[in-house]
User: What shape does this take?
Amino acid sequence: MAVTFSSHKPALANLERGETGRLNKVLIIARYFGTRIPGLIKYLPEFGWQPVLLTTDIPVDNPLPPGISAIETPYRDASGFWRKLFRQKADLDSKSRLENYFTTTSRKSLIGRVLSLGGEIINYPDSYKGWKSLAVTAGDDLFSRENINAIISSSSPVTGHLVARELKNRHQIPWIADLRDLWSQNHNYYYSPLRRMFDRRIERKTLSVSGALVTVSQPWADRLGTLHRGKAIYAVTNGFDPEKTDITPSRLTSKFTITYTGTIYGRKQDPAKLLISLRSLISEGVMDPDNVEVRFYGARLAWLDKEISKYGLSGVVKQYGTVPQQAAIEKQKESQLLWLMDWDDSAENGWYPLKIFEYLGSGRPVLATGGVAGNVVDVLLTKTKGGIHAVTTDSIKDSLRDLYGEYKLKGEVPYHGLREEIDRYTHRKMTGEFVAILDGLVKR
Assistant: This one.
């Protein structure tokens, strides 16, 4: 069966760089984007690099900037049959599909264990493995037509790195492997120890020929170093786009509004600590429930409604559902306080929630709850003075008491963020760090 590829080839801007008057070209291989890949694509031309994106489909709500080329390929989802069998949504991972289908008791049964093992086998190394051959074919075609100077692959999914390795070996050009999430060392790894052993083996083999590894925090870079000894490894944090966040203040809400935007990972992000603190302060008469509102913007969660009801906060804490990114940013900018749930795992100190950078760009104070004292979130908020990191229920309660007191006294929660420090985390700065690595590899 013939495979067709859709290609976006807008006329490139007349941007002169270097002696040849041409931009270097870098192939970016990515299936999911987050905010990192759009930021990289947007600002690379400013640094003399023209990106060409290889992906499966470009999000309608996040189109490419003008002058950027892209190749969209079809892909085969290895778990397609699995989803049809259990009538599960395409955007769920294999474990989530099982959890949605089976009760707690049945998951412990023989059939549950067999199906779980089947999911590990089917989705090895991930459910997008069917994309590899199609993406390599599209990449070969691109290399036959264009002078590509380097490759950046970004995961997850890790299949993008398998594609990059194949193209690097065939065409002998520099390659950076960007791990937005770690592979076999992932803090959210849910497969069996046997599967992890296989993942470690394929990770070492795949990334061994890359010129450099990049990840999003120094603790994760250190962790990668224990598995990929002798490899050049860099920490380049995620960031925010000031053109989207625009720090011009919006009119703040009249209520003491606490806003959370984005996904909640129920197993490792716990809203209960703040809800308990809020309930306690209302019961003590410190807070007026008619003057307080906690807003969630993201997928509606039944279990969260139960938590809210459990603490008698249904009139104060509300879920508003998913909104477009720009609308979420506007909700952040009008809020008295932005809530960030840190990762509740004593062994994890290198996880930055993507949302923290957007929060910093919005110019409103952040209250981060949970996590571990001294982790990257704690350090970032301290360095930028962008907010407070409160780990325990008692410290969260004390922080809320103080912040509400300032709100009552001044009519708003004051913001003390250091703009110069915060601007170190823009997408432009992030791209500059990638370019320094790219330039070094190309020269070498």
